[in-house]
């Protein structure tokens, strides 16, 4: 069985690649989706987040105010570290649970979709191969602005807070290039990656 770590900057097309790999039969464990679950209403991180940051960081419906937390995290490195200290262990525990379920079901390949894989030494040790979805920074910005309510400056701050393109490429065992708009071209690259993963 292959454990693959999938990563890429915001707007790189990582989620699309994960979806394509799932179509080949990989089990995808999505760290972002788990993070959203633990910070949603009733999520396991909410009480600790309210205690650490104050009730103003929790919305009226009981979820983490992601916009307010994003602003705080970019303004204060210590705030980001406190956030990660609460959320990351919960994400890790749920990822391990999902991994155990996949192994018990006989999965041939588990893909861990981890935005911060390069920044986290812990994740690199858990995977056999690192797959990086790469694209030009200006393409990242254009895609995120097009699909979200974020402005260009905010997107650039998010990109600057993540591992650099060079750092991700240096950590890669396999690279999928996705600066273009052709889903067919991307699918052809993912087909080759899937074959490398035994899918």
How many β-strands, per DSSP?
5
Q: Give the percentage of residues in beta strands.
A: 5-15%
What separation lies between the terminal Cα atoms?
10 Å
Cα-atom radius of gyration = 17 Å
Q: Helix-strand pattern, N to C?
A: EHEHHHHEHEHHHEH
Q: Assign an overall shape.
A: globular
The level of helicity is 55-70%
Give me the secondary-structure category: alpha/beta
Biggest sheet, in brief? 5 strands, parallel
Q: Would you tell me the overall average pLDDT?
A: 92
Provide the descriptors you would attach to this structure in a database record.
alpha/beta; 10 helices
Explain this structure.
The protein has 199 residues and is α/β, with parallel strands linked by helices. Helix content is 55%, strand content 13%. The chain has a five-stranded parallel β-sheet with strand order 2-3-1-4-5, sandwiched between helices. The chain is globular, with a radius of gyration of 17 Å.
């Amino acid at each position: 069985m292959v454990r693959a770590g999938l990563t890429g900057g915001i707007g790189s097309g990582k989620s699309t690649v994960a979806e394509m790999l799932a179509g080949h039969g990989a089990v995808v464990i999505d760290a972002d989706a788990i993070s959203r679950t633990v910070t949603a209403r009733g999520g396991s991180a909410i009480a600790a987040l309210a205690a650490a940051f104050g009730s103003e960081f929790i919305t009226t419906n009981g979820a983490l105010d992601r916009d307010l937390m994003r602003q705080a995290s970019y303004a204060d490195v210590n705030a980001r570290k406190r956030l990660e200290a609460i959320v990351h262990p919960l994400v890790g525990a749920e990822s391990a649970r999902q991994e155990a379920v996949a192994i018990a079901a006989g999965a041939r390949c588990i893909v861990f979709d981890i935005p911060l894989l390069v920044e986290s030494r812990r994740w690199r040790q858990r995977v056999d191969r690192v797959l990086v979805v790469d694209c030009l920074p200006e393409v990242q910005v254009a895609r995120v602005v097009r699909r979200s309510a974020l402005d260009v400056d905010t997107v650039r701050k998010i990109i600057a807070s993540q591992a650099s393109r060079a750092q991700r490429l240096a950590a890669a065992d396999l690279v999928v290039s996705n600066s273009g708009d052709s889903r067919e071209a991307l699918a052809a690259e993912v087909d080759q990656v899937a074959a490398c993963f035994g899918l």
